[in-house]
Amino acid sequence: MPNAKVLESKKAVVANLSGKIKEASSVVFVDYKGITVENMERFIAAVDDKEQSYKKEYNRVCAYAQAMGKKKAYAIVAGWFVEQFPKYRTEPFYYFNNHPTLIPFQPSNNKENSEPELAATGTGG
User: Fold this and answer.
1) What number of CA atoms fall less than 13 Å from residue 52's CA on the CB side?
2) Could you say which of 15, 29, 47, 82 has the lowest number of CB atoms within 10 Å?
3) d(CA 63, CA 25)
4) What mean pLDDT do residues 2-18 have?
């Protein structure tokens, strides 16, 4: 049995998360295991179009994520990547013949992620 202090701390985290989930209009859980920054960059370089749309958007997301701090940066970038390339884990070769429409990155609407503002909109970077 965990000590009382640890248990109370975990209860507070669960209560906080439960409140956020109850208030949310939707919830998405993503498993980022195995998706490294290096893997994301290699994949984008391999499947990108002539205009390098994915790379430009990836760089834009990275710039925003870095401004949000190290603790959040990876989750922000990997979250965009998984949304942009949902078949990455199951059918990665799909993207060599199919180029899905670019999904412009939109920061979360919660206060915690509202600052700083994105420097640019769309895919310009």
Assistant:
1) 10
2) 29
3) 27
4) 83
At 2, the amino acid letter reads P
Under a CB-based contact definition with an 8 Å cutoff, are residues 105 and 118 in contact? Answer: yes
Mean local confidence (pLDDT), 33-55: 88
Structure tokens given for 111: 């206060």
Tokens of 60: 């834009």
User: H or E stretch including 15?
Assistant: helix 4-23
- Nearest CA to 51 among 85, 16, 102? 102
- Report the distance separating Cα 64 and Cα 77, nearest Å: 9
CB of 102 closer than 8 Å to CB of 57: yes
pTM for this model (two decimals) = 0.62
